Batch of 3 targets.
Target 1
Amino acid sequence: LEDSISHGAGLSFGLAEKLHLSIGSDVIAMAPTVDGRVNALDMEVFQTFSVPVEELNDKVVETPLQFAQSLYDTDNVDRMTILLEDNRNVDLVKEKLQHELDKHNVDMEVKSWQEQNPFYTKVKKMFDVIFIFVFIAVFIISVTSVVNTLSMSVIERTREIGTLRALGLKRSGIVRLFAMESAMLGILGGALGFVITTAICSLVKIWQPHWMPPNIVVSIPLEVYLVPSYLGATFLFLVLLSAVVAVLPARKAAGKRIVDALGHV
């Protein structure tokens, strides 16, 4: 659409298909004016577009402001939309705008997009709960696997611990040795996980799978984003977890008498 060409309009795909129209078609737009009379204006189809709500895909027309005001025979507008670069500033901008409007006695109400679309907020909260539940389940499984693997690794090497103790290595040295070994395993495992994750994300970008969400009329690409802060935090957590988990069984095994450790089965 172009502001300089007021009669150019855009039609949703469903509406254009229902009316058998295409780009360049000439049509007549009819609508009641604000006074209740019927008005009609010539209009040319400049573009077609997809509406993100399936129920509206055969009902939406977009025109320049001048054309809409002429069609409804008015100089007014019922709303103005402001798009922010950072959604974290929504509440601050909303408060400042409302303050300025009230100060100049302008009868306008400022609402955020979330207030205008409560359905989005409800769906987002639902998915937040689902993802938190999935995260907790995966977190418990991962931690349990690390704890079980490293604990069994230390317990099965009790004889080695007894041998090291017999050679003069102190209990604190045993604990440090296993903590360092487990930390190295955590580093290797975290690095391997990072490589696998990066490879899968690269494959998704190359493959570019599409899916069609509910209530959407077109398929959209499935996008996966790597968040460096999340990857770094996960890596550090796994390394620390591996080191800490090995300390308790190592202390227990190092605390045994050398004879008992050497005879452990």
Target 2
Amino acid sequence: YELEKQQQFSDTVNPGDVVFDVGANVGFYTLLSSVLAGESGKVVSFEPSPRNFGFLTRHVQINAMSNVTLYQAAVADQPGEAMFDFADSNAKSRLSDAGTHKVRLVSLDDLFARGEVPRPNLIKIDVEGAEARVLRGARTLLASGPLPTIFLATHGPEVHRECLGLLREMGYRVRSADARSVDDTDELIATQG
């Protein structure tokens, strides 16, 4: 599964790290992060889809992952509620005004300010088009300490351009996670510049 990305991700997570899995789906990167971060690390995973969240919860339980905290919520630029659209594929569901299901929204800034989540070393973001909203909702967290590495899957050229701008504005150096150029890929890795 996503072998090249998986290898780069695995090479980045160290024992003791804090990893945020934003758009956790059924938990592949949550479980991988849990193993790589080890008992001294922590994984915080976010998934708004009730179906996916059920699978995610079960996968964490089956594997006895004691270092994982789960949020049934979509990460965005501010806390609240929004409509969610279920696609034919559980990996393609997304926030949408045309959605049929209401989901809880959280922002990383708000959770961090309230002490609910620690400062991350790495953030994986794959949220089917809401990537810029996630970044905008983490500005204070990202600006208040060392920049965590971000693995970012973008969905659409406008969102891609906006995310590149936000990351660079925050002091990130951005590279492609595959053989394509930064402008042509949809898989980015952002590190402290």
Target 3
Amino acid sequence: EEDRIWIWFYGNGFLYNMVRILTGTLVAAGTGAMTTADVMQVLEQKDRKLAGPTAPAQGLFLQQVKYLEDSVFHLLI
């Protein structure tokens, strides 16, 4: 949306800086610094060293947390 990127993360738990790392990796893929194959490798190998940079906290915000009946919550960033 013009100069904004909207990313929604859904899960039942998040580690420290996890959303910032995921965001940085997706931005790296979007700018061509990483390929989609690189992103898949990061997710499959679960190796932080392979991921993109940690996105700065500025501009990221928690929009909503929803607790559902099945104990899964949605984190909208």
